[in-house]
Amino acid sequence: MKDLLIKWFMTFNTFLIHISGGKLGSKLGSQTILVLHMVGRKSGKARSVPVAYFDYKDKYLLVASNWGRDKQADWFVNLKKESHATIDVKGKTVRVKAREAQGDEYTSLWKFAAEKHPPYLDYQKMTTRRIPIMVLEPV
Questions:
Q1: pLDDT of residue 43
Q2: Spatial contact of 43 and 77, defined as CB atoms under 8 Å apart
Q3: Over the stretch 69-108, which tens digit does the pLDDT of each residue have?
Q4: Is residue 94 within 8 Å of residue 138, measured between CB atoms?
Q5: Which residues of the chain are modeled with pLDDT < 70?
Q6: Domain boundaries, the chain
Q7: How far apart are CA 29 and CA 136, in angstroms?
Q8: Mapping DSSP to helix (H, G, I), strand (E, B) and coil, where does residue 113 land?
Q9: CATH classification of 2-138 is 2.30.110.10, yes or no?
Q10: CA 83 to CA 99: how far, in whole Å?
Q11: Is the separation of the CB atoms in 25 and 13 below 8 Å?
């Protein structure tokens, strides 16, 4: 039931962001939201999902917390297969290439994200997987 509610909320939020040009649904509490458009790894179909992000040195950071679940977020696995995507952010569409942060970069970005949004620390305690961070660079 929880998964169904989350899926419904994400679909509705994507709709709100789309019809309002980003004026509605782009801010949830302390987090800013973009809409990520990518290709589904299994279906090959276009997929769109709202994802919390951080601006960081002319890039966009996405923390693949999946609310602390043990399963990776579908959007993360899709981007691992096909790194080219587009995002709707701040009322504009931007083409991006995604890569997963590793090593010292990951450590630095995790600290940055956790300071900006402390619930990520709780999510990490809820799962045995390391929560990945995707860096989206405009192309």
A1: 92
A2: no
A3: 999 999 999 999 999 999 999 888 999 999 999 999 999 9
A4: yes
A5: 1-3, 6-29
A6: 2-138
A7: 22
A8: helix
A9: yes
A10: 7
A11: yes
